[in-house]
Amino acid sequence: MKILVTGGAGFIGSHLVDRLIQEGHEVTVVDNLSTGKRRNLNRRARFYKLDIQSWRLERVFRNERPALVMHLAAQMDVRRSVEDPVFDARVNILGTLNVLEQSVRHGVRKIVFSSSGGAIYGEQYLFPAPETHPTQPLSPYGISKLSGEHYLAYYQRISGIRYVSLRYANVYGPRQDPEGEAGVVAIFIQKMLSSEQPIINGNGRQTRDFVYVDDVVEANLAAMAQEVQGTYNVGTGVETSINDLFRMLVELTKASCKEVHGPAKKGEQARSVIDSGRIRQELGWEPRVELPEGLRRTVDYFREKLG
Q1: Residue 141 bears catalytic tag
Q2: Across the chain, what does the average pLDDT equal?
Q3: Which pLDDT score is estimated for 155?
Q4: Which of 141, 151, 163, 168 is catalytic?
């Protein structure tokens, strides 16, 4: 199948591209390399260095004629969205609209959209949160991702294009950028291996649902089936506090750093954990990599990268 992956040089996108090519698909990548890296690109994928907001995206669709679009390109930093909500909206709303417009115009059969289970629900009252949980995002990032889901449903109604929205929990793993993508696992590991002091935001009792990148890739593959449509959470259903994560990583890295706390960050939830029962039941997906093993793999990756 001919598949276009936006954000295919990024953390999750590059793992997905590798897996799609392994499965025998013909893959085209669109990425502006603002946070994605050339070293992440699979040599067997066709690559366009391009922003998803650009009018030139039309040429990519016209030349490549993808049957399916995996839309991962995004501004994904919650804190940056709070600091600059206009930039966040340009990328995540207007950029997504451009992808949807070109998809409809050029006969794409289906879009798989990377959304956010962590940011969309806001402060939860059900733990873990199912897809039916009210959506009350606390950050512009969560608002923009929820807007993307609404636009997907709109385009489905007016054009018939099929879609799946995957609401990821907190994804971690090899290739995550501790600078550009603000993943706490990557930030902590790099600082610990570099003998620097990580700072825990707030009291550290805030919880997250950490899901390994390989499991997220498998969820995307499961969503490709033609008959599948709708919204699915992709997480483990297990809460882990930032304090506990810090202690696990100290043990894995053998770091000598202390547990130092800083001010809490705006727009961050106190507890976040999602229920993936629907995707388990309907698509047969389930997370296979437990947190201790996933963290070990990620530490090994950063240790090798840092030499």
Answers
A1: yes
A2: 96
A3: 98
A4: 141
